[in-house]
Design a protein that fits this description.
Low-confidence stretches: none
Number of domains: 1
CATH superfamily: NAD(P)-binding Rossmann-like Domain
CATH architecture: 3-Layer(aba) Sandwich
Largest sheet: 7 strands, parallel
Mean pLDDT: 93
Order of helices and strands: EHEHEHEHEHEHHHE
Oligomer: single chain
Length: about 260
């Protein structure tokens, strides 16, 4: 299927590894031009070797001055902007609310939601000039369900939904669509670390935590980064031109989190 996005100019945050890298690759496969940023210099160097079509720069998206520099670089390389994918996130601390270090709370909120504001405010003036403009914010299934022992993460991901819906209303008149993607249990190192942290907090094995988590999912399976990338590309393509203000769960029908 031709997605009709050849030449689309795309910026992906935290795009040198994991979900972000898969999103960047999916766009490139469809003929888009992609720039990514990341805080991991080693991942950026590795990306240059494996994916030379993807340009990249070092940036911590919680740092507003660094984000300003990112946009200067990305706009120069892409020649404008059609799509912003706010992918940067962190798992945050695991523990009971009274045990959480306030600095860990602040960092989780900064990475998962404030960074999206930092990027959106600079992207919008350029997206207004696009004929196919969209913003895609990464939330989580934890953005629609309660998540015990993960309050900073859940609070931030719920905030992403409100941010997304409000932006859709605010920017719709300019033809800019805004959606949130809500991944479920995504295969990879991050979920493994989450399982391990919860296992330690509860005094059980990580395998027990994983099996319990999957038992609350109708399809009893994890999600792959590529499945997320495919949905993001569709939303950003002309085929998704009337999809906006949505919180799109890609989670195998997760019914609850534990």
């Amino acid at each position: 299927m031709d997605m009709g996005i050849k030449g689309l100019r795309v910026l992906v945050t935290a795009g040198a590894n994991g979900i972000g890298r898969e999103v960047a690759r999916a766009f490139v496969e469809e003929g888009a031009r992609v720039h990514v940023c990341d805080v991991d210099a080693e991942a950026i160097a590795a990306l240059a070797g494996t994916d030379p079509a993807i340009s990249a720069s070092l940036c911590d998206v919680t740092d507003r001055q660094a984000v300003a520099g990112l946009f200067e670089t990305a706009l120069a390389r892409l020649g404008g902007l059609d799509v912003l994918v706010n992918n940067a996130g962190t798992a945050g601390p695991t523990g009971r609310v009274e045990e959480i270090n306030p600095e860990d709370w602040d960092r989780c909120i900064d990475v998962c939601i404030t960074s999206q504001f930092n990027c959106v405010r600079l992207a919008v003036p350029h997206l207004k000039n696009s004929a196919n403009a969209s913003i895609i914010n990464l939330s989580s299934v934890a953005g629609r369900l309660g998540f015990a022992l993960r309050t900073p993460y859940a609070a931030a991901k719920w905030a992403v939904i409100g941010f997304t819906k409000s932006l859709s209303v605010e920017l719709g008149e300019f033809g800019i669509r805004v959606n949130a993607i809500l991944p479920g249990l995504v295969e990879g190192d991050r979920i493994r670390r989450v399982f391990e942290a919860k296992a330690q907090a509860r005094g059980v094995s990580a395998r027990e935590i994983q099996e319990q988590a999957l038992s609350y999912t109708a399809q009893k399976t994890m999600v792959t980064a590529r499945q997320l990338a495919d949905q993001i590309v569709f939303c950003a393509s002309p085929r998704g031109r009337t999809i906006s203000g949505q919180a799109l769960s890609i989670c195998g029908d997760t019914l609850m989190l534990s």
